[in-house]
Amino acid sequence: MKRYRKELNREELLASYENQSFEKVWNLLKPYRPMLFGSIISLILFNMVGLSMPWMLKIAIDRVLPNADEVLFWILASLMVLLYLVRGLLRYIASYTLDYLGIRVLIDLRQKIFAHLQSLSLRFYEEYRTGKLISNVISDVSMLQVLIKTITQFGEQIFQLMIIAGLLMFINWQMALLVFMTIPLHYINFHYFRKEIRKDSMVVQEKLSEISANLSETLTGAKVVKSFAKEHSECRRFFQNLRPLADMQMRVTVDSVGLWAVFDTLSLVTYLAIIGVGIWMVKTNSITIGEFVAFYTYVGMMLGPINILSGMSLTFAQGMVGASRIVKLLNTIPDIQDSPNAISAGKLTGKIEFRQVVFCYEPEKGNVIDGFSLNIQPGQKVALVGPSGSGKSTISNLLLRFYDVTGGSIRVDNLDIRKLKLNTFRDNIGIVLQEPFLFSGSIRDNIAYAVKREVGEEEIIAAARMANVEEFVDNLPDGYDTVIGENGASLSGGQKQRLAIARAVLKNPAILILDEATSALDTVSEFLVQDALDKLMAGKTTIIIAHRLSTIKNADVIVVLDHGRIVQQGTHDELMAENGIYRDLYQTQAKMNKGAEA
User: Fold this and answer.
1) pLDDT tens per residue, range 161-182
2) Average pLDDT of the chain?
3) Interatomic CA distance for residues 533 and 467, integer angstroms
4) What is the CA 568 to chain-centroid distance, rounded?
């Protein structure tokens, strides 16, 4: 089973993110720009205060030491203490606002992404792996926090470079030009390694996302892994997926080391040149010793920002990759949306009409549903049967508007469902699946999940009683407060099914969809669940999707599907009197049941 993706190509990844420009990423930070600029300004003021220290050192060397001027010394000392106190306050303000901004972005953006994910259609989740989405919400947003700090540092360091450049020119323009000659070399070094690091960082992020997806898949399927004794092979696959990641991370490290090595070499050459020229200028009285010391100190302070800007190559590249992936996700447009003038569904009666419905998942693979027409009256029970792949579950997905029809229309209470607001329309539909999904909270929480309003204890107990949930809840030590574990791990299949039915009972929908709700249960569980379903279906328009035909004999209408088309329609007795698919399926199941009993 090939579950791991092909090797990721750096150039392909770079091309895929090329349209995610910094401008688009910058738009993500639009609500936070005032705070971001505030942080940058605080850091700039912090650095400006620090830049005054070499100038005071110049005054001390040129005026205090030669003249033993104690008064001037104490003035300078007091001023330095005051400036450092102000510097500390500015540093606190900058750090506080920057950290607060980072935390705000983490919370707000994760909330925004989660809300966007809830708006996306079912097709998106079928094509996008869950582990990658988790990586988007957790890892990529964290990378954006790193990007914010990088942008702040960038603004701070660029401004500091400009101020220092001006001070160097003011002290001695000839020596300043000598220093400025090295800046293009630093830029070339920075530009080359930044490009390589960005490509490699993209691959690293994608590989981490793939590992997260594979890990999620393996842990979710732990029961299958253990039942087939595949623990060793899963460990081997996981290790095989980690090795390329480690290799790529080492490439990033090698690129980073190369950047630092070139930077250090250029810095050393700059220092030696300044010292050599400075000795000659002091000797010729072109500058004073104090001016030379201040100049040399400012050069060191200028190389610091260049050093930091070079180091931003890795963090900026990683942050841009994470931010670009977030932009790409947020730009995903939901397939299913409310129409511009959508109306509230209100309380529906449950009349359903399928008018020449056509649907295909992928055009090149042909229609799954082809010319499906059916009228269902309020309170009527309609069963959909047919061979596997005939389109039964697709009909329920179309009715729920998980997908929109390719052709034709579906009308409820004489209204096209595409003209109804999704949330109000789905409030009128309840569904019980073959394998119901339960949350890891308590039994009470899972039942109450069906409705948006606050639910009283009496309503929960009434729904549980109607769904035969009380039969097993009364035997639990914590009753309705019992925590059932992930997807109801502590409950049997029949108990989970009844809990799902209780959820539907509490919702009290006008339309009910039962998607093979009893096909995976034993005889005793099936009896209890079927009894609960009979109570639930009373007075509701019900669509029953069933493989076990013995459970739908009492349906008002049985619709037989084959390759997305209706081939038979009628009651059980009417269809058994015909020579068709339904009778063949029913007789085959009857023989299988007799053989199983024997």
Assistant:
1) 888 888 888 888 888 888 888 8
2) 79
3) 7
4) 45
Using DSSP's 3-state secondary structure scheme, residue 244 falls into helix
| Bridge pairing between strands 429-433 and 415-416 | unpaired
Place 302 in a pLDDT band, splitting at 50, 70 and 90.
Answer: confident
Name the residue among 392, 396, 376, 394 with its Cα closest to residue 384.
Answer: 392
Which two three-digit tokens encode residue 258?
A: 């190369």
Q: Are 386 and 392 in contact (CB under 8 A)?
A: yes
Report d(CA 400, CA 545) in Å as an integer.
Answer: 14
Rounded CA-CA distance 89/85 in Å is 6
| 376 neighbors 513 (Cβ within 8 angstroms) | no
pLDDT digits (tens, 9 = 90+) for 221-246: 776 777 667 778 778 888 877 877 77
Could you give the 3-state DSSP secondary structure of residue 416?
strand
Tokens 């931003």 locate to 312
Q: Are 193 and 231 in contact (CB under 8 A)?
A: no
How many other β-carbons are positioned within 10 Å of the β-carbon of residue 422?
A: 19
Alpha-carbon torsion (132, 134, 140, 144), positive or negative: positive
Percent share of the chain, pLDDT over 70: 87
Q: Which residues contact 213 (CB under 8 A, 6 or more apart)?
A: 129, 130, 131, 132, 135
**Continuous H helices in 416-456:** 422-426, 443-448
Is 566:372 a contact under the CB 8 Å cutoff? yes
Which residue, among 20, 39, 7, has the nearest Cα to 154 in the 3D structure?
39
Cα–Cα distance measured from residue 437 to residue 298, given in angstroms and rounded to the nearest whole number = 65
Which residue is associated with the tokens 């081997």? 236
When pLDDT is cut at 50, 70 and 90, the band that residue 408 belongs to is very high
| pTM (two decimals) | 0.67
Separation between Cα atoms, residue 76 and residue 56, nearest integer Å: 7
Alpha carbon distance 359, 361 (integer Å): 7
Name the H helices within 331-407: 392-399
Q: Name the helix (H) or strand (E) containing 373.
A: strand 369-376
Q: What is the DSSP string of 134-200?
A: HHIIIIIHHHHHHHHHHHHHHHHHHHHHHHHHHHHHHH-HHHHHHHHTTHHHHHHHHHHHHHHHHHH
> In sequence order, what are the residues at sequence separation of 6 or more whose Cβ sits closer than 8 angstroms to the Cβ of residue 404?
335, 336, 398, 418
